[in-house]
């Protein structure tokens, strides 16, 4: 009788442990932007540079629009990106093209960059896609029709749809145009090839 009782107790313990192990091993579904977040480096983020293709400029394109170097600003940008949803195709007509340049540092030196194309459409949608930066994305001047060639180079599939525009993440007063970066920062930007 004691052996039978021990067998039941042992089976009960094994059953409980099995239930506990199975319950603990369930994987949570990742949030929609998890795949995009995984593209970020584990290195320390130093800055996020925002470049904009503009028709109304005499400068080479894309030109630097703003810089986010404060950690709270960088976290806000990453949170904005993490709320994205992967979509098969970029939908709509591109109205504005931007390049987000993520700068990383190791041992207080710039060690790497990552790039994402950000598109605002005429239909009011916002899309983002990682890409490999190269010379074909640098133009002497920009016309709206150049956007088609740029998007063709990036590819029209495997984009991430965002729930709001970048300018909604930060009000205009929070961005730092190049003119407000100060002379030493401006000189650094002018003499350093970030692409």
From TrEMBL:
Entry keywords, A to Z: Signal
Signal peptide interval: 1-27
UniProt protein name: Lipoprotein
């Amino acid at each position: 009788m004691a052996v039978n009782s021990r067998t039941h107790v042992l089976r009960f313990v094994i059953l409980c442990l099995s239930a506990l192990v199975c319950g603990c091993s369930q994987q949570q579904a990742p949030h929609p932007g998890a795949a995009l977040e995984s593209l970020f480096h584990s290195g320390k983020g130093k800055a996020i540079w925002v470049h904009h293709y503009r028709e109304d400029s005499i400068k080479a394109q894309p030109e630097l629009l703003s810089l986010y170097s404060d950690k709270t600003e960088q976290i806000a940008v990453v949170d904005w990106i993490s709320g994205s949803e992967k979509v098969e195709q970029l939908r709509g007509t591109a109205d504005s093209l931007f390049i987000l340049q993520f700068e990383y540092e190791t041992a207080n030196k710039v060690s790497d960059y990552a790039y994402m194309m950000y598109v605002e459409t005429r239909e009011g949608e916002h899309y983002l896609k990682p890409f490999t930066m190269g010379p074909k994305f640098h133009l002497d001047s920009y016309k709206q029709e150049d956007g088609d060639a740029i998007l063709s180079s990036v590819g029209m599939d495997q984009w991430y749809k965002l729930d709001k525009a970048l300018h909604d993440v930060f009000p205009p007063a929070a961005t730092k145009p190049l003119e407000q970066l100060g002379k030493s920062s401006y000189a650094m930007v002018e003499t350093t090839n970030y692409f």
